[in-house]
Specification:
Strand order of the largest sheet: 4-1-7-6
Number of helices: 11
CATH topology of the largest domain: Bifunctional carbon monoxide dehydrogenase/acetyl-coa synthase(codh/acs), Chain M, domain 5
Number of domains: 2
Structural class: alpha+beta
Radius of gyration: 26 Å
CATH superfamily of the largest domain: Bifunctional carbon monoxide dehydrogenase/acetyl-coa synthase(codh/acs), Chain M, domain 5
Helix content: 10-25%
CATH class of the largest domain: Alpha Beta
CATH architecture of the largest domain: 3-Layer(aba) Sandwich
Number of strands: 21
Distance between the termini: 65 Å
Oligomer: single chain
Shape: globular
């Protein structure tokens, strides 16, 4: 099937990471402003089947080591192909690109990030037309509903920018169609394991009011995909019993996640960043992160070039939650989920959000409650925790009511009072003292601790031996 392709093609290459030293060229990614992938359904007579076109320089004409604006535009046709399937077919670009040895595809929609390895380029993978041939054959063999397919790769910067604007309009129209339906009104959710090649224990649970983390698959997309490709990575989840309507715990979701993660994840709460938060892959559009100093949540998205208010860039915060893990206080999410009434509702919703980039605030501004919108800081208002605290107090953000003021102990009137005080018990200095609290581990380095009294009690039933043989 791929004898005319100079590199191997197969599932075994999914999950392959291409590091910068091994990279021949980078397409899209965080260093460029404009990138996209878009699939459009067309009538059969409007698609030139098998045609692969390149607008702009081809791979062999790109300079080694550089990053370029990039777009993938695919037109498909078939008797069963309809507009509602565009998002599902589009999401398969990620999967099929990763079948190609030495060709890495990350993320989706306007966040795509691709790299070609030096090794594969040297072996002859030096034209987008070769990649187009692979995609054409995979789409037709894996999705029989695709009868005709035409693929265009775009590297011309002006054309990429123009088409990226068109793509965003299409994405918004798709997302708008999915709004309105409530989680309580359906008897099935949908799951997706498309990203398990990069995050083996990640299982995305897609509900009407909780988009996939990647922002590319709605509940309607999930329903369509499970019907078209019942053995594919997107599948039906029976809602089952509602165990907690506020946190968003459903027996059906728990069962599906446990099965698809091979028992690694047993419970999931869909509407919170704490306890048993939804797992995160690596394709999420943004990440919510806990800021303990103000007891609030911040949000930072993939395109934010600076550092968040806690001093960390998106990449570091993303690494803290990616990989299919459940991490207390860290939550990968889509931009569309921020427009949902269920958005982190167990944590207080928008009343718990204290900081976010201005670009994200503009994108979802119409969905932020008016009474709190101006009380949420951006990078223009606060760049440090201290600045954030002052901003929240000045604006009377709802989070301030959660703060508990700690009174300073009274200062002794004289040295005599100090001498008459109860003797203090002093522990020898320790080089490293780990403390676990609220899901976080705090390590005190070179700590010296004093205490008036030490009480030692035996605790039973907490694991380990309690004495005896």
């Amino acid at each position: 099937m791929f004898k005319d392709i100079p590199v191997d093609v197969g599932v075994i290459y999914e999950g392959e990471r291409i590091r910068k030293p091994d990279m021949y060229v980078e397409l899209g990614g965080p260093k460029v402003d404009h990138k996209f992938e878009l699939v459009r359904a067309k009538p059969l007579d409007e698609v030139d089947d098998g045609k692969v076109e390149v607008i702009g320089p081809d791979l062999k004409e790109l300079e080694e080591g550089k990053s370029y604006p990039f777009g993938i535009y695919i037109e498909v046709a078939g008797k069963e192909v309809e507009e509602d399937l565009e998002g599902i077919i589009e999401r398969r670009i990620h999967e099929y690109c990763n079948y190609i040895e030495g060709f890495m595809h990350l993320n989706q929609r306007y966040d795509i990030w691709l790299r070609l390895s030096k090794k594969s380029f040297q072996r002859g993978l030096n034209s987008f037309k070769l990649i187009g041939k692979v995609l054409e054959r995979l789409f037709k063999s894996e999705l029989p509903i695709v009868e005709k397919i035409q693929i265009t790769f775009i590297t011309d910067p002006a054309k990429v920018e123009e088409m990226a604007r068109v793509a965003r309009q299409v994405y918004e129209a798709r997302d708008a169609r999915a709004r309105g339906l409530k989680d309580e009104e359906v008897d099935a959710f949908y799951g997706c394991t498309l990203c398990q090649s990069f995050a083996p224990t990640h299982v995305c649970v897609i509900t009407p009011q909780r988009y996939a983390n990647c922002g590319a698959i709605s509940w309607f997309d999930g329903r369509a995909a499970s019907r078209v490709d019942p053995k594919g990575p997107i599948f039906r989840i029976e809602v089952g019993q509602v165990l907690d309507p506020v946190k968003g715990e459903y027996s059906g979701a728990n069962e599906a996640v446990k099965k698809k993660s091979l028992g690694e994840i047993e419970r999931v709460w869909l509407y919170t960043a704490f306890g048993y938060p939804h797992t995160s892959c690596g394709c999420f559009e943004a990440v919510a992160f806990y800021i303990p100093e103000v007891d609030g949540l911040g949000i930072v998205h993939r395109d934010f070039k600076g550092v968040a208010v806690n001093g960390l860039p998106f990449s570091t915060l993303a690494d803290s939650t990616a990989g299919g893990r459940q991490v207390d206080g860290f939550h990968g999410l889509s931009i569309e989920y921020m427009r949902s009434p269920k958005f982190l509702q167990a944590d207080g919703g928008w009343n718990r959000i204290v900081w976010m980039p201005s670009a994200v605030k503009e994108m979802v501004g119409a969905f932020i409650p008016r009474e709190v919108a101006e009380k949420i800081a951006t990078e223009r208002d606060a760049t440090t925790i201290e600045e954030l605290k002052r901003f929240l107090e000045e604006k009377e953000h709802p989070i301030v009511k959660r703060w508990v003021k700690v009174e300073e102990p009274p200062v002794p009137a004289s040295r005599e009072e100090v001498r008459e005080a109860e003797p203090m018990m002093e522990f020898p200095p320790v080089s490293s003292l780990p403390i676990t609290y609220g899901g976080f581990k705090i390590i005190l380095k070179d700590a010296k601790i004093t205490a008036k009294k030490m009480i030692i009690r035996r605790v039973k039933g907490r694991g380990g031996s309690t004495g005896g043989s």
